[in-house]
Design goal:
Elements lengths: L1 H22 L7 E9 L2 E12 L2 E8 L4 E10 L2 E10 L2 E12 L2 E8 L2 E11 L1
Antiparallel strand pairs: 1-2, 1-8, 2-3, 3-4, 4-5, 5-6, 6-7, 7-8
Length: about 130
C-alpha cells in the first residue's frame, strides 16, 4: 500500500510541474491573415503572411495601397503575438507595432502608430 501511495505522489508531483508548461503552449499563426481596422478614411484591409519558428514570428504585410513590407521583432508568447512593421508613406516612414490575442483562426488587438492607437481584427484565410 505504501508503494502505491508513493507512486501516486510521484505521478502527482510530475503533473504539478508539467501543467504550467502545458498551459504555455504557443499559438500557431503560420499562414495568411486578413486584417481590418477602422481609420478616419474608413475601413482599411491588409494581408499578413506569418511564418513562425517556435516563439519567433516573421513574415510580410501588404496594405490596401500596395507595397509589401517585412515584419520585424515579432514574437508569439502563448496566445499573444507582437510584431512591428515599418511602412514608407509619402517619403517618410511610419513604425507600427501590433499586439494581439490569438483565438483559433482570429486575432484581435491594438496597433500602435505615431498617429495613435487603433483596434484591429484578423481572420485566417489560409493556414
Amino acid at each position: 500500500m505504501k508503494r502505491i501511495a508513493r507512486a501516486a505522489v510521484s505521478v502527482l508531483s510530475c503533473l504539478a510541474f508539467a501543467l504550467p508548461l502545458w498551459a504555455q503552449v504557443t499559438a500557431n499563426v503560420v499562414g495568411r491573415w486578413e486584417m481590418t481596422n477602422e481609420t478616419p478614411r474608413g475601413t482599411m484591409t491588409s494581408t499578413f503572411t506569418f511564418e513562425q519558428d517556435g516563439n519567433t514570428l516573421s513574415g510580410t504585410s501588404e496594405g490596401q495601397r500596395g507595397g509589401e513590407v517585412q515584419i520585424s521583432t515579432g514574437s508569439v508568447d502563448g496566445d499573444v503575438i507582437t510584431f512591428t512593421i515599418v511602412r514608407g508613406m509619402g517619403g517618410r516612414t511610419m513604425e507600427m507595432t501590433y499586439t494581439g490575442t490569438v483565438d483559433g483562426d482570429t486575432i484581435t488587438g491594438t496597433m500602435y502608430t505615431p498617429r495613435g492607437e487603433r483596434d484591429f481584427s484578423m481572420k485566417r484565410v489560409e493556414g
